[in-house]
Design brief:
By secondary structure, the chain is of the alpha/beta class. The chain has nine helices and twelve strands.
């Protein structure tokens, strides 16, 4: 009887160990999927918009990750070029500064034709920038801060145009959340347009993990999501729990902030907009404008509304940054 009991216990311990190893192994695999993806190639440049531009390189702030981008001078009504007002444009997740899915290159072209210089760049691990784990804004905010440092202190690619007098920012999806995190830390970002930002990324990732399939396991049970997020931190130094702009957005006040969100967004649910707006407007001196776009899906407000989007964003930046000098 004693020997049979010991064998049963030993068998259960071995089974528990195998199950634990399997759980950790699957969670580690999911973590790798969350933080790494092959970068997407850039196909079109601002030349496709008949705009002059310069390729630029600069490091992120704090950790010095090498970043690639382009600076597009704004075009004044008389045809002169200017970098008096520069908008740092921040793309979404798993794409690049061209970002054809949300027509970001076309949007940057519209900003340039309305007299704004544009610094559009690839965040770490994406496009032509240095490979690095994806952290959904927690670390990428350093890339936005590096863009600000480049505009203020880097070698100007158009020396004859000088340096910007003032800097604004526009971000879409993850880029919007990343920009909100950066602007909360950097007062030199004088005005922010946030399009389709999430309030915190962990709930989105937990939902996405549950949609994944792994052969031969098949659909991944939701129970693996918390462990995958923890393994991302242990294995890759990525703290997805820090990608939470709702906790810092109030620090942007009293600088002007425009929040845009589509009512048909099925990736970043509309509740995120409500959370961000409530947190932003709670700050003393808050200067928040909102635009709710009916029936617009995730990051598709520009595609859906076209001229109206450009008109609203240009008017916002004109008011916030002043006329071009």
């Amino acid at each position: 009887m004693g020997m049979a009991w010991r064998r049963t216990v030993a068998g259960l311990m071995i089974l528990a160990g195998l199950l634990t190893l399997g759980y950790v192994g699957i969670s580690s695999y999911i973590a790798e999927q969350l933080v790494y993806e092959a970068p997407k190639a850039i196909v079109k440049t601002p030349a496709s918009q008949s705009l002059r531009f310069a390729n630029v390189s600069f490091p992120s702030r704090n950790d010095g990750i090498g970043l690639k981008g382009w600076l597009i001078p704004g075009v004044l009504p008389d045809g002169r070029l200017t970098v008096d007002r520069v908008i740092v444009v921040v793309h979404g997740t798993r794409t690049n500064r061209e970002s054809p899915g949300d027509h970001l290159l076309e949007l940057t072209g519209e900003l340039a034709r309305h007299g704004f210089g544009v610094l559009s760049f690839d965040m770490r691990g994406m496009g032509e920038s240095t490979p690095a784990p994806l952290s959904m804004g927690a670390l990428e905010q350093r890339d936005v801060l590096g863009a600000v440092d480049f505009l203020r202190n880097g070698t100007p690619p158009f020396p004859e145009l000088g340096r910007p007098r003032i800097i604004g920012g526009l971000g879409i999806s993850m880029g919007a959340s990343t920009l909100l995190l950066a602007a909360a830390r950097e007062p030199a970002i004088a005005a922010v347009v946030s399009d389709s930002a999430y309030a915190e990324v962990v709930p989105l990732l937990e939902r996405e993990v549950a949609k994944r399939s792994i052969a031969p396991v098949g659909r991944v049970p939701g129970v693996f999501a918390p462990a995958a997020l923890v393994m991302a931190r242990l294995l890759y130094g990525v703290d997805f729990f820090a990608a939470r702009p709702v906790s810092t957005i109030a620090r942007i006040a009293p600088r002007p902030l425009l929040l845009i969100h589509g009512t048909a967004d099925d990736y970043v649910p509309f509740a995120n907009f409500r959370q961000l707006n409530a947190a932003a407007t709670s700050a003393p001196g808050a200067n928040v404008t909102t635009w709710i776009v009916p029936n617009a899906r995730h990051a598709q407000a520009f595609k859906k509304t076209g001229v109206e989007y450009v008109t609203r964003v240009v008017a916002f930046f004109d008011a916030a940054l002043g006329a071009a000098g």
